[in-house]
Amino acid sequence: MRILFIFTGGTIGSSVAGEYISPDDGAPSLLIKKYDERYGVCFEYDISMPFTMLSENSDGIYIYKLISAVKDAYEKGGYDGIVVTHGTDTLTYSAAALSWALRDADIPVCIVSSDKPLEDESANGVDNLAGAVSLIKRSYECGDEHCRGIWVPYRNHDGAVYIHRPLYLMEAGAFTDELFSLKNRYVMRFDTGKRILNAGPYYDAPVFDKDYAEHLDMKSHGVGDISDELTQTSEKILRIRAYPGMVYPEISEKVSFIIHETYHSGTVDTEFSGYRGFFEEAAKRHIPVFMTGVSRGISYESTAAYNEMHVIPAYDISPSALYMRLWMAKDQVKR
User: Fold this and answer.
1) Please, what is the Cα angle at 250 between 244 and 255, to 5 degrees?
2) To the nearest 10°, the Cα dihedral for 182, 196, 124, 50?
3) pLDDT averaged over the chain?
4) Are 119 and 127 in contact (CB under 8 A)?
5) What is the DSSP letter of 219?
6) What is the mean pLDDT of residues 69-92?
7) Which long-range contacts (CB under 8 A, 24 or more apart) does 172-179 make?
8) d(Cα 34, Cα 40) in Å, to the nearest integer?
9) Model pLDDT for residues 268-300, shown as the tens digit of each residue
10) Could you say which DSSP state residue 248 is in?
11) pTM, whole model, 2 decimals?
């Protein structure tokens, strides 16, 4: 079994220098050394370091460089799996971008991070890597097709390493370093060395593929095909979220898509007069408005206004995954 490690920085590629955490070129060897001490290295590997940065400084240029590095390595072949190290701040965005760009990957590509520098014995980076290696090993030894594609292994405070699909992975909240999938849609977890499938239907590929295909082909909503090249900033996307007393912003001439994040129950304030004016302006200019946080099934009465305002419910996708899908769109398809 042969694995390619692509190191890009982040906390997992950093060390404490004085009062600050900074990227460290020695971190890659430290990660593999600590993994070997805890689990034993039972695979061959190569290392690539195309660039190093802290993930909070991410932009379209950085994400394009990441996609190019991973895609080039994947297309050259010769590896049974790829491990990409990455910072936690923008992990969900890069993972989603790779998921869209390498949507047909036939080996596991795992994005591995750490909540603390590796010198800290409580850091989860080594265990996250162990989750990635376990997934790659299962694909290699058992030919399990369910292990192919893009993954994020991550250990939460309960000690289990959860295996997430980027389509469902939510950003970490403020003041926490745990990661969760929407509706608890992690696919499996590794707990005390045992692989445990999620009790839900999310291990089965058709469930994921249905959601994936729905968001991949969005031409009916005015979204073009995917391009790996990104602009440095996402001027064509206006992203807003619901909060009490919010004032809707003006829609600039550069905006092609709008993402509106709802409250946890899939609702926004539809009684506020500014709500109607904002969505009428978007509809008049043929700008698609995607509402995230909305679930299929029974909804609150206030969500009935979504259809009236031509709002598109973005079911079963994390806000960051939808954001990256729109940012990577080649163009807006006129409807």
Assistant:
1) 115
2) -80
3) 88
4) no
5) G
6) 96
7) 172/88, 177/88, 177/115, 177/116, 179/88, 179/91, 179/152, 179/154
8) 9
9) 888 877 888 999 999 999 999 999 988 776 565
10) P
11) 0.92
pLDDT the model gives residue 52: 85
Q: Which residue has the higher pLDDT, 137 or 299?
A: 137
CA distances (Å), 211 to each of 222, 229, 249, 265, 310, in order? 18, 24, 30, 20, 21
- The structural domains of the chain, ordered by start, are 2-208 (3.40.50.1170), 220-327 (3.40.50.40)
Q: Which of 236, 238, 235 is nearest to 331 (CA)?
A: 236
Of 117-131, 290-304, 319-333, the range with the highest mean pLDDT is 117-131
Torsion of CA 8, 22, 96, 42, to 10 degrees: 50
- Pick from 163, 105, 176: which is nearest to 130 by CA? 163
